[in-house]
Design brief:
Largest sheet: none
Low-confidence stretches: none
Oligomer: single chain
Structural class: mainly alpha
Radius of gyration: 16 Å
Mean pLDDT: 93
Number of helices: 5
Length: about 130
């Protein structure tokens, strides 16, 4: 079986960073962020971990031919969605007003939705072997 290295490496990196940020949020930010900000931060971590698992699975099952667009949709979708949530939810701690990037979050979410939609179409078109 052929594996897709870029998906596997990216998935592993996403998972590693999600675990680090999840621990940091639970232990380092718990006392400094409001409950709403901490919940937002945790949402970013959760979505990043979901997409880490997805990238690992796709690294095993997807062909090189179908991989490029899906890879970039999930890569940039996760970076924009989770990354912007991390910045927005920690602005009180960093002292930096990241409100100017608030529209990046739905753009990242939109990229993730398109990626999942294309994945559904790909799976519908699969032929039984």
């Amino acid at each position: 079986m052929q594996t897709n290295r870029k998906f596997l490496v990216t998935g592993a990196i996403f998972g590693l960073i999600a675990v680090i940020l999840g621990a940091f949020g639970a232990h380092g930010l718990k006392e400094t962020l409001s409950e709403a900000s901490l919940n937002s931060f945790e949402t970013g971590v959760r979505f990043q971990m979901y997409h880490a698992f997805l990238m690992l699975i796709l690294g095993i099952i997807i062909t090189e031919k179908d991989s490029k667009l899906l890879f970039y949709l999930f890569l940039f979708g996760t970076l924009l969605f989770s990354g912007s949530i991390y910045l927005l939810s920690t602005s009180t701690v960093t002292g930096v007003d990241f409100s100017a990037i608030a529209l990046v979050t739905p753009v990242g979410g939109g990229l993730l939705i398109v990626g999942w939609f294309l994945l559904v179409l790909k799976f519908i078109k699969l032929k039984n072997k």
